[in-house]
Amino acid sequence: MKLVKDPVHGYITISDEERKLVDSAAVQRLRRISQLPLVYLVYPGARHSRFDHSLGCMHLAGEFADHLNLDTHERNLLRASALLHDIGHTPFSHLFEQLLMEKGLSHEDMSIKIVQEDDEIASALEAMGLDVKEVVDVLRGRSRLSGLVSGPLDVDRLDFLLRDAYFTGATYGVVDVRRIIRLTRLLEDGPAVDSRGIGVVEELAIARYHSFINIYFHHAARAAQHLLLRAAKMLEDELDYSTMTVQEYLQHDDYTTWCLIRSREKSRPYIKMLEKRILPKRVFEQKFLGENGPRINYSDISLLERLIAEEAGTEPMKIYVDYSYAPPLTKYGPGEVRIHPPPDTDSWIIQQLSKPLKLVRVYVEREAAELDRVRKAAEKIIDSETV
């Protein structure tokens, strides 16, 4: 048994069989993928990695397994699935996942592909008495354990809220995780929270909302991320993750990608701006909670940038349109937060904060002389084209 000291959960234990999985190249790669890309430009301590988060998820999965009295096989399956759930992330996590999503893929798709095709992962799972198909079924939502890995109150969400709050120093994400674990029941069709836990579920919904507003969607962090994303799109032939083999994909991480972008003449200026923290200036913002407001596809962004630039009489490359979207508390809507037995009255807090959150922003390069014209153009174009 190996002990790992974690600042969020204390000591994390890893069995000898699990260590082979943790030490695999695909899992170790997560050390070099940031959990919150470029958020350190706003919160200097936010330099933690997907590896830290994945270990934390495995640890919480073990706590769930112990509380639910799972047998050894299901316990191993739940912990392994939690460790591997983010193994398919692109460099810079969700930021560059957009490059995958434009091709109809997601990091979840890549996680499953890696688990299915990486021999080292398969061998490590076999040593734990697990089959690849079992893990894939959990990751695809086909197991009664799936809701503990990907659901409204899963180990992923419980860990990232605590971890991101710790490393940013922004305490919005502090949640009583152990109460949620101890009040969770595992029904035949998945997990549910005892009705005594409504208060802590409300606490989580509030923490999630404030974390999105103040950390994940912070205007300066998003400005920095758009600079890096713009640079990456200039190298779309070299960074076409959707066409890569598993082994090619696993060769890419934050470090290799940053160096690649910095080495190319056409994309280097964006890295230089990030190195000096010269970020685009926000000139327009609209926020919507619920189904109101626009739903902007990734393919619409460049069109909106061109329309705003044309209206303002400036160059499209100076304009950055940001559409930040936080899905409902679950992927399927408020009803997916299962309380058992059902309460007599619904929670107003859970109902309201289960709604999707949308932010539309327009930025312009800071030295541009047309700030006011861009703001007016954004107001006109965004209202007419998307609402």
From TrEMBL:
Residues 50-161 form the HD domain. InterPro entries: dGTPase-like, HD/PDEase_dom, HD_assoc_2, HD_domain. GO terms for biological process: dGTP catabolic process. This is HD domain-containing protein. GO terms for molecular function: dGTPase activity. It comes from Caldiarchaeum subterraneum. It comes from the Archaea.
